[in-house]
User: Fold this.
Amino acid sequence: STFFENPAFNELLGKEFAVALFPAKSFSTDNPAKSLEERLLLIAKPRHNVQLLQSLIPLLSKDLKHSTAQYGSHIINRYKIDELNTLSTVTVESLIVAALEERLVRKSIDYYDSKENTLSDNKEFKKLRKNFKGARFFSYLSLPAFFEQGKMISENLQDEERKEFLRLLEHWKGWGAAAYGAWYEKGIIKDKVELFFDKNKLDSKVARLCCDVKPSTNKTLEMVPADTLFYYWTNTLNLPLIWELYSTTLTKQKPEALDLLRQELRDTVNVELEEILAMIDKEFALIIKDVGSEGVPLPKVSAIVQLKEPDRFLKIFHTLLEEGDIPLSKKKFMNHTVTYWGIAPQGGLQPAFVVIDNYLLLSNSIDLVKQIVSLKTDPEKTLLQSAEMKVVGRELEEKNNSAAYVHIALLADAFKNLATWASGIAIIQGPEAAREADIIVNKLILPLLDGVSMYSTLGSRSIINKDSIILESTTTVIQ
Assistant:
């Protein structure tokens, strides 16, 4: 067995442990794994008394060559793991500090002895530790440090590649420290991510897209059926700005297609592309419901888009569909005009859309459209009133920048049905295709989905503050 399978190493990790990754002084593509190992520092709180463990390790690891070295008032233990690697450890109070690169152990001792320039003195780190109080798992990441590492990596690139890489890095300048934490109690897992930013240092367009939107009340929650499998909402949709950010690249890639689209819009509805984008407001939502039991097991899906000018947008939308020779019909349903594809409404999948207040609802199922419209007069059947939502989604009703709900167990079942159906279709393509599909579905996809099914439901949200973005989620575990 290897050293890391040794009982002594297992005892070492014991009660609590932390891992720190130090910056690289240089970067080589020859052996990146070795480079990573040399920058890792392990700090562990063993299950038992650290002095006792220190005396037992030589006995438990008797096959390893062991030596010691004095460093100040501390004794560093060295364990020869193999011909190339030596693990260095030192005891500090009730902790054991270990690394494959002894320089890191010595550096850690220096910081401990001097009590200066430690991570605990960092302002953002202190704030994050306070915000993640009680977390059973905590991870801290310095994005400015990664930014500097990125610049160092770019030195190994060719001139043109380096310029492009550095240009991409500049877009993400201004992001600060980030942290992830997790709490677990009585069948519920709570996760949290927080990312700091300096709006003055961020790219102005990135700042407008990611950091300038205030949390708001989510009205689309009233349109979500109780038996929904997946739901997502955001108030950060900014199509004019997204177009401004990426239009230059798109124009370079397919200039003829873009010119054709612009001309088509001018000829058909007498508007510019930018005018249409400006009619769409900040909110967007997506609803995924049950998978049909007949035919292709595709889910019912609905997208909800907030409009600034509903009447004008709808007129343009209708005209474009008619110009595309798409047969459209209209039907009144509970004081709303539902437009659908085809001559008569039918069950199953049938594209349809309707405007509710200033929200355009587009769906591949007229039945789902009708169900959402009917929730106006029957709020008890909304997701808000479901038992699952009351466990994981109460915070989704507050002012947020995004909200999501996932019925993980049922969604996993839906994907199982789809995977099994796809495997059955592969039989038509011949025995070889059927064999490959069977391996992928039964050996990979279904076991993976079985593992996911241990989680029941998830509710998550994001909040943009003046100097940070917070993402929080609550997940229930099937007991």
Q: What stands out?
A: The longest helix spans residues 431-452. The chain has a mean pLDDT of 87. The chain has 16 helices and 19 strands.
